[in-house]
Write a structure and sequence with these properties.
Elements lengths: L3 H14 L4 E5 L3 E2 L10 E2 L9 H13 L4 E5 L9 H11 L2 E6 L4 H8 L5 E5 L5 H7 L4 H15 L4 E7 L8 H11 L2 E5 L15 H4 L3 H16 L8 H4 L13 H4 E4 L4 E4 L5 E5 L5 H6 L1 H10 L8 H10 L3 H11 L1
Parallel strand pairs: 1-4, 1-9, 2-3, 4-5, 5-6, 6-7, 7-8
Antiparallel strand pairs: 10-11
Helix pairs in contact: 2-3, 4-6, 14-15
Length: 336
């Protein structure tokens, strides 16, 4: 169940100090897949300025001292790093509750190393079978992620599993199959609009004309997602989020930065309202000092007027901030 400590911290963030309690850490921007919809990533063998093992452990310890209670670990592909298990254990020992996002390539062989330290695991599934492999340009990926998820459900039944898909022209006919796959696994299923926000970090060119849905196409798919939820499939997207997709446009007031702090692989905390501008780097500025700084407070204020992001977490958390019951209930169902 949701811990009383987490609920109290969320209430403190909302009504008292507006200090984030979720740490979103991109452990690496490197990835072994080459997804056709991915605006940013680096090759698996790229030279990268990433935080070292000791620096990441210090970050998590510092985050706990600063009042953070939740860690979202992602990338890139976090299991590319050999130290991921050690880092997840250090987060748990610091008192952080962790969700890891992965493409699932190494999930089966590393499950016993990483899953014991997780509360939730999110695996990207953009289609079923070979179709997924073609979207991600990584042959054999679906078979490996399926084996990993099956093992996790059998071996670690208390870990929440989330199947997540990005809506695009490449999987427009796969929604029913993805939702059914999540149902068979006993997993939550989320669908997200394609986010083309350029943060100025590791950005690369993609063929948007080939992969990006038109507003009308996206609206049709969003309606189908809503229908799948009504049919009893384990879809966790809220009606209010789905209504942000399609012709109506994704207009909302962003409160995400009051709840969640994002740290890049090199330790930068970027000001997403100004492309490529870093407010600070966690190698030199403790998180507590950063959140008390005038620069960070100004960033939170300016972010309210931005609604470029189409990421479900950004929109849903912003809706939770405003007290929308459906968004709050979705979070309870996903975390508890």
């Amino acid at each position: 169940m949701l811990s009383a400590r987490l609920v109290l911290k969320a209430m403190q963030t909302r009504f008292v100090d507006h200090r984030p309690f979720i740490l979103s850490h991109l452990l690496t921007a490197r990835c072994n897949a080459d997804c056709l919809t991915c605006l940013w990533k680096q090759p698996a063998d790229a030279r990268a300025d990433e935080l070292t093992t000791d620096q990441v452990i210090a970050l998590y310890q510092n985050a706990a001292r600063a009042g953070f209670q939740v860690l979202v670990l992602w990338g890139g592909e976090p299991l590319l790093r050999r130290d991921t298990g050690r880092l997840l254990r250090s987060a748990a020992e610091a008192g952080l509750t962790t969700t890891m996002i992965t493409n699932g390539w190494w999930l089966r062989e590393r499950a016993d190393e990483v899953i014991p330290w997780l509360r939730r695991i999110m695996v990207s599934v953009d289609a079923i079978g070979d179709r997924h492999d073609r979207v991600r340009r990584l042959p054999g990926l679906f078979e490996r992620l399926d084996a990993g998820l099956t093992y996790v459900r059998d071996r670690y039944p208390n870990v929440v599993v989330i199947v997540n898909a990005v809506l695009s022209r490449l999987n427009a006919d796969q929604l029913d199959a993805i939702a059914a796959y999540g149902h068979r696994l006993g997993a939550h299923v989320t669908f997200q609009g394609m986010d083309t926000t350029d943060y100025g970090f590791a950005t690369r060119a993609i063929d948007l004309e080939r992969v990006q849905l038109t507003a009308d196409e996206e609206g049709v798919l969003a309606a189908r997602v809503g229908a799948l939820r009504k049919e009893g499939l384990p879809v966790r997207d809220s009606t209010s989020y789905l209504q942000k997709l399609g012709p109506a446009g994704c207009h909302f007031r962003c409160h995400f930065k009051k709840v969640c702090l994002r740290v890049e692989p090199n330790g930068d905390v970027l000001d997403c309202t100004w492309k490529g501008v870093a407010i600070a780097n966690v190698r030199t500025v403790p998180l507590g000092d950063l959140m008390r700084s005038a620069a960070f407070r100004d960033f939170q204020r300016r972010a309210e007027s931005c609604n470029r992001c189409r990421d479900a977490a950004v929109v849903e958390l912003s809706h939770m901030w405003e007290g929308r019951v459906e968004a709050i209930w979705n979070a309870v169902r996903s975390i508890a």
